[in-house]
Amino acid sequence: MCKRLIFLFCVFVLFFNCSNGFSQTQEIKDVESSLPKIKDSLRYVDALNRIAMLSHLRYRDSCLYYAEKAKEISYRHDYLKGIADAENCQGIYYFSVNNYLSAKYFNNSLRIYRSINDKQNVAQVLMNMGLMMAGDHNEKEALKYIYQAEDISRSLVKDSIRSLIISNLLTIDKSLTPKQYKRLFKEGRAISRKYKDERLLIFYDASEGTRLYKAGEKQRGLAMLKAASQRAEDQGLESVKVETYGDLADIMLDLKKDDLAEDYYKKGLDTSEEFGFSDDYIYFAEKLFEFYKSRHLHEKAYQYVTLLLAKQNQLADAVNKSGYNYQNFSFRETENADLKARATTRIKTILLLACLSVSCIGLIFFIYRALRIKKEYGEAQQKLLETASRQNKELQQANHFNTMLISVIAHDIRQPFSTIVMLSSVFEMLSDEEKSDMMVELSETSQKSLSFMDGLLDWIKSQSSNFNYQPDKLMLRDLIVEANTFFKIAQKKKAIELSLKVSDQDIVLSDKQMLLFIVRNILNNATKYSPVQGVIQISSQLDGEVMLITIRDQGPGMSNEQLDRLFKSGTSDLEKIKDKGAGLALLISHEMASMMGMKIWASSELGKGTAFHLSVRNSPVYTPSR
């Protein structure tokens, strides 16, 4: 059902925003060519939002680019509808990639549409939110939003949107009786015919074909479904065509025509990849995996497990790069509740001051006393504001720590175990040599996860107020070799040479787990960004009571702007980090170094690699800071 919901969402976007003569690519070109001729700022914003909406299915990056540009201009001109349209496009862009971020934009646009009494767009956003909830398998909440949209659609002068709302009710609401289903299906198809909406007519015909097949009229149902698929291809409706591929493949399996089923699954996978339908791609990859697994074609099954893992990793990276997760969503909801409470307090305060002012005018004799009370009240307010500011700062610090902790756990711990579970599911299908290779990779992944957890736990303990730092004498060369254990395979695959210029006699004073955590993260970055056959140089130099450790790679290097932001913390900074897992690890490394009285910094030049420097005490004198 999730795949069908994504399809309906895409149909909805086109349905609500395209003309009856469907030519999405041509209209984008026409609107783009008209931009230089538009002199009115508000019309220019509308054109940008139009391009953003039309670009969603084939040009996802363009969708976000034009929406952000339209929102920026709308804010300058205080154009509420332009802001709402842009945030709706942003919500559509992040749909199924990061639903928390998508919900944020949908809620913002819904609030603005309601404030300007734009009922048609209110129904649209409610529909989007309902489909998003259904995609998260929250059917109860999904139906609540969709029925709200359905109720609004009854009062609209142009009821074209109602056809799509009905199609979603037919898909999601499993409590409909056969009589209710038939009545709604008839009404929805009639509205589509009235407005000559080919996209929804194809959907209704395809749904009817599937229903007829399941009801026993197999030849008639199959013919309708094939005809719908051909019409979708003729119209250039790729999302509709992909949906029919899935249904046709299932029917071919039922008819014992495995070759045709396999062909439809592969067509669906290829088309999904070409046009960026991530959810459909995952669906078809899973179907092909199950298809080959059930037929004991282990090599092909393993191939599609690999594709599935790669796509899931790609979606996880998209969530991280978006910089918005469940924690942000929860904090925003808490923040909204606080703002409402403060607004209520301000209203009460204003009313109280108004009453005092009226009393002062009527009682001249008590003016002096009233002024004195007002002054005292102001001082009390100032103290309250200072107290609130201090508490808010403490709360932000706590939120900063929790956000870092949750993001690191989600990015660096959950993914390795997810990979272990997925790979182990196909373990029995592999040859002995493949099993041996897989066991090496599973062992390496497990060791990395456990070691990372040790360092993370040490860092969490270091955040407590009663943390007592007790350094140990460590042999530097042995520690570096231990830290590099987890990257040997990756370095071997890239033919990277590790040049270790560290004496066997070099000793440093540090907490072992925290120093291992810091060195591992630097080596991880060096291995990741080093070119094939590159060299990672590690050297040490004694300067009085300080041992200077330098880890240098031959990667692409960083700009001065990137270096300036490398070790900066704060929630706003975290949201700007592109590689969020690596960025957070460096931030934690910086905090650990400060905790142990060490210094960590980097030097780099674009095209000439990056060097990380770490100064560590090699005598009992150290100055830890908090």
In CATH terms, what is the fold-level topology of the domain at 2-196?
Answer: Serine Threonine Protein Phosphatase 5, Tetratricopeptide repeat
Q: Which homologous superfamily in CATH is the superfamily of the domain at 2-196?
A: Tetratricopeptide repeat domain
Strand sequence of the main sheet, in spatial order?
A: 2-4-5-7-6
* Count of extended strands: 7
- Biggest sheet statistics: 5 strands, mixed
Structural class: alpha+beta
Binned, the helix content reads over 70%
> Roughly how many Å is the radius of gyration?
30 Å
Low-confidence stretches: 5-23, 324-335, 570-581, 621-626
| Molecular shape | flat
How many DSSP helices? Answer: 25
Quaternary assembly: single chain
Gap from first CA to last CA: 52 Å
Provide structural commentary.
This protein has about 625 residues and is an alpha+beta fold. Among the domains are: about 1-195, Tetratricopeptide repeat domain (Serine Threonine Protein Phosphatase 5, Tetratricopeptide repeat); about 470-615, Histidine kinase-like ATPase, C-terminal domain (Heat Shock Protein 90), CATH 3.30.565. Helix content is about 70%, strand content about 5%. It is built from 25 helices and 7 strands. The strands form 2 sheets. The protein has a 5-stranded mixed β-sheet with strand order 2-4-5-7-6. Strands 1-3 form a two-stranded antiparallel ribbon. Strand 4 and strand 5 (about 545-550) form a beta hairpin. Helix 1 (about 1-15) packs antiparallel against helix 9. The chain is flat, with a radius of gyration of 30 Å. It starts with a helix and ends in a 9-residue tail after the last strand. Residues about 5-25, about 325-335, about 570-580 and about 620-625 have low confidence and may be disordered.
